[in-house]
């Protein structure tokens, strides 16, 4: 019975070894053997669902605040199975909504504070990595957004103006063609903006080692344990196929994109697949040609987001959106691979870096990230149901999940500090539309943004900003 019920929630988990889900899991330095799962019912203080960054950071800060708290983390697969073990490894202060839209909605001061909290989160991740001796190849080299063609320059100018709008212009620097090419050689690169608050890291090593750190602090992680139902109340309860977990303080839903698989949250978040390709390690000579010695995170101004990392072991990771949204927000193992999107990513690697024309790609993978209807993360603790949530980072979750963990700690431990005043604390996004509207809207936007990118490049003309897709995508 238990196994059958689990199969329903876990249908997006296939049978392949966990190391095959991403290069990061493959190279994380441990053998990914699952920890024992839940056997029978138990009572704890806090039960966290999901052993990715959100769940682990929340456990970390809760136990720092109150070391005697009994914390259990229930994970349907293994720690790091989700986006945390598969992402582009950007630990960035970039937030899921633009500064312009935040200022419009929350005002200049609140936006500056939010942005400051994001800067701090990048450093906080670096600090914990250092104090806990986590070997995650953290390198804070900043981020460069690159205009490949004159048509991308207005987007860079907007970026600079946004930082000026909130008095944070000292965080960014415009790079003309020469300044940019002294850092990195990218074909057709016209200019860039350097933002200093970004690091790159090995997310697989971070998530797997953070799990051990949290265990050393006293948390118990139970793997291969899917939560099937959540019942809120004075003593909220988690139902699994192997027993129930009753809690005295709180349940924390830290399942990000996967939250959609649980009925009460089905329309709270949509899973969007982001895909990655990775080159073989590049030779010393090739790196001499490309430069990129500071390992800055790199992206371009395209609407169909792209993100690059020079890895610690000398490869180029090239990730991007563009894989299609699936009907009814479904999640499946096979969606991690989309041949057409992976092919485009590999072609782009060769266009950006012509010196790589004969380079081999050793890995392709992908995963789902969670997007809310207003692109705001929802970091909440409902005192009535005693259920907390942290989701909706829209692909900017490596640093934001750390902030989410600290916000949830303040809310759950009842030690409110400055973080609970941030706009995403106790934020409730409106629900996504029901199908078929959701499918039609998202698929249209994905298709139209891709077309705008192609046209911009072909005609060397900046996007107008007024097309339907751009307006639907404003955030
Ligand atoms: C390909 C890709 C690239 C990305 N690149 C970047 C990047 O470069 N920088 C950045 O900031 N962000 C990036 N992101 C986003 C970032 O990885 C995520 O926002 C972040 O990892 C979310 O962490 P999380 O712990 O909330 O969720 P996850 O890491 O997805 O963890 C959720 C966990 O919950 C478990 N779970 C789900 N349902 C259940 C259940 N019912 N019962 C028990 N367990 C359950 C899952 O197995 C999973 O382990 C990327 C995402 C993807 C997919």
From TrEMBL:
InterPro entries on file: FAD-dep_OxRdtase (IPR006076), FAD/NAD-bd_sf (IPR036188)
Pfam hit, one: DAO
Residue numbers spanned by region Disordered: 455-475
GO cellular component: cytoplasm
Record domain FAD dependent oxidoreductase: where: 45-411
Biased composition (Polar residues): 455-467
Protein name: FAD-dependent oxidoreductase
